[in-house]
Amino acid sequence: MKTFHDCLPCFVAQAVSALERCGLDEAAFQETMRAVLGELARVDFAVPPPAVVRNLYRLIRQATGTRDPYAAEKQHSNRLAHAMAEKFRKKIEASEDGFIARLKLALAANSIDYGRYGRLQEDDVLEAMETALAAPVDPDAAAALRQAVAEADRILYLCDNAGEIVFDRLLIEVLPRDKITAVVRGMPVINDATLEDARAAGLTEMVRVMDNGSDAPGTLLETCSPAFRDCFAAADLIIAKGQGNFETLSETRGKQIFFLLKVKCPLIARDIGQPTGRLVVKPHLLPAGDAKP
Domain boundary residue among 23, 45, 64? Predict the structure, then answer.
């Protein structure tokens, strides 16, 4: 997915939100924002939005010396998600289909997104999770995912956000764990999950976890480590959480991918063919060809 002019206000809002968490005085804030706007003046609209955000966060880290502006929010999200997950276990046990219940909760937890919601409210997360089990999910796509998981030998599960990763763990509990490698970001960007969040979620105790070696809020293969690219190439099923992974992998060829996300952006809604607010399971398999992955 390419960047559109509609993305520019979101980029500015993300930069402002990150800088507000860096403890800058007004002069330093303004100076850094000028640098951000200069970077956006040279934006390459041919690349996916996470490639632009990657450059902005590199600039912000260098200018402010703050490695992880959302560290406090990520820790809070993990704690909140743990409390919610324990609450929902009883509802999962009472549901007709535990896999579908866990899938819906993992999808709804994609709401924990400070990239889209710079001032995310706890009540909004709670409401999203409370309504998740009653939300519609394409039954054919969910059935196709279940079958693909059963048939796969090597599954790569690409995580998205802190907090959300706790509900990924809840879903992974009922998947064939010996086949799964879970993947997090190589370093902090927005509130995306890193190895620290995977440990906080208890995911490292359940399956193999690796980072992708990249600082992009998605999966830009050309920026990822050789070890991750080898795993990506070897996987026969990729489960990709969140909008950032959709934006960066939606044109990938020759790989069976299931995108799992909540639609939070009108551009994603247009591209994916679903309304904002919808919980989406989207199978994806473009034939191998000459197109760039």
Answer: 64
**Structure-block tokens of residue 35:** 């640098």
Its pTM stands at 0.94
287 pLDDT tier (thresholds 50, 70, 90)? confident
Residue 225 lies in a domain: yes
Q: Report the CATH number at residue 198.
A: 3.40.50.10880
User: Within 13 Å and on the Cβ side, how many CA atoms surround 251?
Assistant: 14
Contact 213, 228 (CB under 8 A): yes
Q: Which residues are 184's β-sheet partners?
A: 211
Q: Name residue, tokens 């490698």.
A: 181
The rounded Cα 120 to chain-centroid distance in angstroms is: 15
Overall average pLDDT of the 56-68 stretch: 96
The tens digit of pLDDT for each residue in 25-47 reads 999 999 999 999 999 999 999 99
Query: What is the band of 292 on the pLDDT scale with cuts at 50, 70, 90?
Result: very low
Residue 133 burial (10 A CB sphere; 0-12, 13-18, 19+): middle
Residues 92, 169: one domain?
A: yes
Residue 289 belongs to a domain: no
